[in-house]
Amino acid sequence: MHASALQQEDAASVEFRDVAMAFGNRRVLQGLSCEFPAGGISVILGGSGSGKSTLLKLIGGLVRPQAGSIRVAGEEITGLSERRLQGVRAKLGMMFQGGALLDSMTVFDNLALPLREHGRGLGEAAIATAVHECLEAVGVRNADALLPGQLSGGMTKRVALARAILSRPRILLCDEPFSGLDPISSRRIEALLVEINRRTGMTMIVVSHHIASTMRMASRILILLPDGAVAGTPDELRRAGDPRVVSFLDETLEVAETDAPVEFLPIGLNRAV
User: Fold this and answer.
1) Helix crossing, 107-118 with 124-137: angle to 10°?
2) Alpha helices in the chain (DSSP H)
3) What are the C-alpha distances in Å from 126 to residues 79, 116, 117, 130?
4) Does the pLDDT of residue 75 top 50, yes or no?
5) % helix / strand / coil in the chain, to the nearest 5?
6) How many whole angstroms separate alpha carbon 16 and alpha carbon 34?
7) Residue 160, exposed/middle/buried by CB under 10 A (0-12, 13-18, 19+)?
8) How does residue 120 score in pLDDT terms, banded at 50, 70 and 90?
9) Can you tell me the distance from the alpha carbon of 42 to that of 171, in angstroms, rounded to the nearest whole number?
């Protein structure tokens, strides 16, 4: 299936309306309304404890808000049963901050595991083809027999990304994909995300603290601030003149912009698994 067809048929948006979330006495979100457009790369920025990772958990139905509405791929999820939530989660892919690879399993088996458990009768040959295609797509070849402990930080992120896109999700959630990486590795992961989005039209929602990559890759940015939230395109936020936004972006932009440029990596993700 070509990228344009994916964009027309399979792109999915996420919408929050007046969402409130608290853990005990600690208020994380209060009346948050925002949209993560279908087919785009949306980046969530915010300070520590601002609720960035909580937003991803809310989208996956792992936690439920105290108030408000959340729509994922057109479906209201806040009142769904656990069984019906499984159907929504099947549309999501997740790239975890630390990779979340199983230490006792090889790279190949880490990727093959979800297909073996939920692959609807896929044979081992089809599973191997799917795994190798995704590993090649993220630039990790000949790593089948390696254990997670034998991978560099950048390779771990790539393998985690390969596993996240293996089922061709409609929405890809990424929690701090650049954390712990050197500048060159960060730019490579950034390039991969942009290229995957370009080729497949996959909706991406990325939690990050990396300002420079955000301003380069994001089609929309949500900044969680202590007194609310601000959203817009990178250009809109640059022009807005909101002192809260200017202060937030300028704090790390100067350091982050020292990252060296990296060329985009060619990948092929048009064949369905």
Assistant:
1) 130
2) 3-9, 52-59, 82-89, 107-118, 124-137, 153-165, 183-200, 211-217, 234-240, 243-256
3) 37, 10, 14, 6
4) yes
5) 40, 20, 35
6) 5
7) buried
8) low
9) 11
Tokens of 239: 């022009």
| 8-state DSSP, 32 | E
- How far, in Å, CA of 69 to CA of 104, rounded? 40
SS3 call for 99:
coil
Beta strand 203-207 with 171-175 is parallel
Domain ranges of the chain: 3-91+170-256, 102-168
- In whole angstroms, give the CA distance from residue 156 to residue 152: 6
Hunting for tokens 């790279």 — which residue is that?
A: 107
Structure tokens at 189: 């992961």
AA identity, residue 161: L
Q: For residues 256 and 187, give the distance between their C-alpha atoms in angstroms, rounded to a whole number.
A: 11
Distance (Å, whole) CA 106 – CA 149: 10
pLDDT in tens, 196-206: 999 899 999 99
Q: Mean pLDDT lowest for which of 32-46, 185-199, 254-268? A: 254-268
- For tokens 């380069």, the residue is 216
CATH of segment(s) 3-91+170-256: 3.40.50.300
pTM: 0.85
Show the tokens assigned to 200. Answer: 């497949």
Inter-residue contact 221 to 168 (CB < 8 Å): no
Token pair belonging to 93? 């892919």
C-alpha to C-alpha distances, 188 to 27, 155, 199, 218, 252, nearest whole angstrom: 36, 11, 16, 15, 20
